[in-house]
Structure to design on (164 residues):
């Protein structure tokens, strides 16, 4: 003898169907998010560029202090060899540092805004050796440049604190 409770079975089946649809929808959303993240995140050094990236920031210090601070950061972070300060052109540049198939060079130039503000343009050039020669690649992202500017700002304060 079979007990038939079609109302209960219908509600139970409907609930299972709704839960399965929810799980399916949630799974599809997760898969789409993962695919989007994977496709948006190029690996560092894989993006070939035609001209170097250049970021800028304003510091509240005179040019002489900022130039010395940038040079210290370039030396401390080993962002190139032979760090040179050109006071007339308001530039700090390095020579290429070569490691394996990569070479990296850094440069910064300043622009005086007013008596207490200096604008810094910073560029890190990374090149990878290929069969056709050296190709310029994007090695640093915006976040790394922000970190460099924060470090430069710290060195600016250290330079200002030095007794001349």
């Amino acid at each position: 003898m079979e007990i038939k409770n079609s109302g209960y079975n219908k509600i139970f089946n409907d609930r299972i169907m709704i839960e399965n649809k929810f799980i399916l929808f949630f799974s599809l959303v997760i898969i789409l998010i993962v695919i989007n993240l994977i496709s948006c995140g190029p690996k560092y050094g894989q993006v070939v560029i035609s001209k170097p990236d250049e970021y800028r920031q304003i510091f509240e210090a005179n040019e002489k202090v900022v130039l010395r601070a940038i040079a210290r950061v370039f030396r401390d972070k080993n962002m190139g060899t032979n760090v040179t300060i050109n006071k007339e052109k308001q530039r700090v540049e390095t020579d290429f540092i070569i490691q394996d198939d990569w070479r990296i060079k850094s440069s910064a130039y300043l622009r005086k805004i007013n008596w207490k503000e200096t604008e810094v343009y910073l560029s890190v050039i990374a090149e990878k050796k290929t069969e056709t020669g050296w190709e310029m690649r994007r090695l640093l992202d915006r976040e790394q440049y922000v970190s460099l500017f924060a470090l430069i700002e710290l060195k600016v304060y250290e330079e200002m604190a030095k007794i001349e």
